[in-house]
Design goal:
Layout (H helix, E strand, L loop, with lengths): L3 E7 L3 E8 L4 E8 L11 E2 L1 H19 L6 E8 L4 E5 L9 E2 L7 H8 L8 H4 L8 H11 L1 H8 L3 E5 H9 L6 E3 H4 L5 E2 L4 E2 L1 H7 L8 E3 L2 E6 L8 E7 H8 L8 E5 L3 E8 L10 E6 L7 E8 L3 H9 L9 H6 L9 E3 L17 E3 L7 H27 L6 E4 L6 H11 L3 E4 L4 H13 L6 H5 L4 E5 L5 H16 L6
Parallel strand pairs: 1-5, 5-14, 9-12, 15-21, 21-22
Antiparallel strand pairs: 1-2, 2-3, 4-7, 6-8, 10-11, 13-14, 15-16, 16-18, 17-18, 19-20, 22-23
Length: about 500
Amino acid sequence: MAQLVGALDQGTTSTRFMIFDRSGKVISSAQQEHRQIFPRSGWVEHDPDEITQRMWSVISSALGSAGVSGADLSAIGITNQRETAVVWDRETGHPVHNAIVWQDTRTDQLVKDLGGAEGMDRFRHQTGLPLATYFAGPKVRWLLDSDPGLAARAERGELAFGTIDSWVVYQLTRGAEHVTDVTNASRTMLMDLETLDWSEDLCDAIGVPMAMLPRIVPSVGKIADATGPLEGVPIAGILGDQQAAMFGQTCFDVGDAKNTYGTGCFMLLNTGNELVRSDNGLLTTVNYQIEGEPAVYALEGSIAIAGALVQWLRDNLAMFEKSEDIEELAAEVEDNGDVYFVPAFSGLFAPYWRSDARGVIVGLTRFNNRHHIARAALEATAFQTREVLDAMRADSGVELNELKVDGGMVANNLLMQFQADILDKPVIRPKVAETTALGAAYAAGMATGVWEDFDSLRANWAEGRRWLPAMAQDRRAELYGRWKQAVERTFDWV
């Protein structure tokens, strides 16, 4: 039988297990959504036990549809929604609270208090991150502050904290391993980017006992053996979802970049072994680390709401039945009718980092209709990507010749053409657009010898479609200028 590698993709809205062969071809896939829990405005939670149930279900389904067993897999890789925080009881293995999701804004006042006189940059040199509601460490501090009993148990080492990768590995190994990889650890505000280890100073300052923390491991390397339907299969790769997409897009050279269009939108630029600190609102993060080798870093522009805006129009406003219907709706009009939709539902992430911002639709007149709003919603993702690309250019000095894209939204041809137009750059979609799971499989397969090196992975990459810019420069400048005006209207709402 051909060498097969599995990938568990634990995303923000769904759990998926995919099986790939050595050519990168999808052999089988199974996916299930999980609930989005909104206890109050600005709060977003997931049920960790529900995620576990979905995980075992999709693993069994994918193995069954491929006609294989776990023993037929050479390895499995894991990729996950980042920054989402889970705390559980070490003895029972049960979560003590729902997972607090990366989009959640309940730590707004806490991060302001932590910043004090120094503000959002207090920990940026050590962590590469601004103080923001986005990151996992303050979420844990909030949880411990909310229940003195939990705080005391955490100090005694009775509770475990992890991002979703930690929870998944803990479940796959039936509680034998409490680990996280360097890419996920770099999103907690608790790891020093230079040492790649937990910082006692950061943990003390943020208020997270070190006794709760998982062991940090490289992204590519044998970590543990799985159990259940995957009994004995090596877990050999862990990458946060955006870093996994970089791996799947084979962005291994300095200056390589990709943009993933999912629940949020995330652009990463490979900076190699150099730790480039941003002056323009980007994050400095770990791109990946191969066992025994130095870490590779990246600059990242994080956008909170992209595909989630389409879901919001579908679910909250019932504007259409299926997410893909938005393209037909938006194509009914020639342009946005001077309507701009800034989806600052969780504040604004890169390059602004404004937790006080909230969403706005501006420019409405009696002329406008739902087609203009649908088009403005799609264009919002492209405008936000332009802002991130401008910041990336300013920080790195690198002028991108083209942009590799992936994720669910890249099936939307209208959006991809507008993206090329507003960037004035070619936009390229690979044949395998869902590169996040593929990247996790590549990492695990490299660690176990399925793929020998980066060149063998590059040989699998193939272009699926390319969009070229076709917009006049003055029109591009006009639209982008109006977008900037709209963004300013979101500030200081909270």
